[in-house]
Design brief:
This protein has 211 residues and is of the alpha/beta class. The protein contains nine helices and five strands; from the N terminus they run βαβααααβαβααβα. Helix 1 runs parallel beside helix 9, helix 2 crosses helix 5 and helix 7 packs across helix 8. 36% of the residues are buried.
Amino acid sequence: MTGPFTITFARGFGTGGKEIASRVARELGIHCYENRILTLASQLSGLDHELFVEVDEKIRQHSGFSAFLAGLPRSRKYISREEPFAGDQQLFEYQKEIIENLNETESCCIVGKCANDILRHRDNVLSVYIEAPRDYCIRRTMDNMPVSREVAESTIEKTDRYRAEYYSFYTGGKSWTDPVAYDLTINSARMGIEGSVQLILAALKIRGFIE
């Protein structure tokens, strides 16, 4: 396939999904986007309409959102969601526009943000879901944050509930963990981080996205 392609990643908390996405991106020499999309969408949603139209026009004249996203700081923290979910449709619409623009203008990895559903009708997308047994996720969370087992269990439960509610809200009630919504579902505890990366690269070759 010629032209850009997108790999979307959904993942349970503590599965190593974000690390897998980052490693895939590094292996391919492409960007991996997660919270920078939210940061830019938040900035855009704070503009009044006339100013947004002006900024949006400039962005499109300079090959899309990628240059703007590249200039934003990349979070390296192990981020969890402790706050209750609250929908913000306008913010989501900006995120959706950024994701669609990235898909059209550059090859990249996109973590979360309902990207698999937003891009579900596009042929240049490989959607991946990373999951693992709870005990594996707890041990990874304890090692990476680091926290007690009780805190790790609570963090995983709250964060995964937040992600499920977020996905359902913005996709019209769809299930975040439905395997049919993804091209590839990986048990990272079985495959390991590096094995998961290699599996995704193999899938990209099968789809004709890379040689």
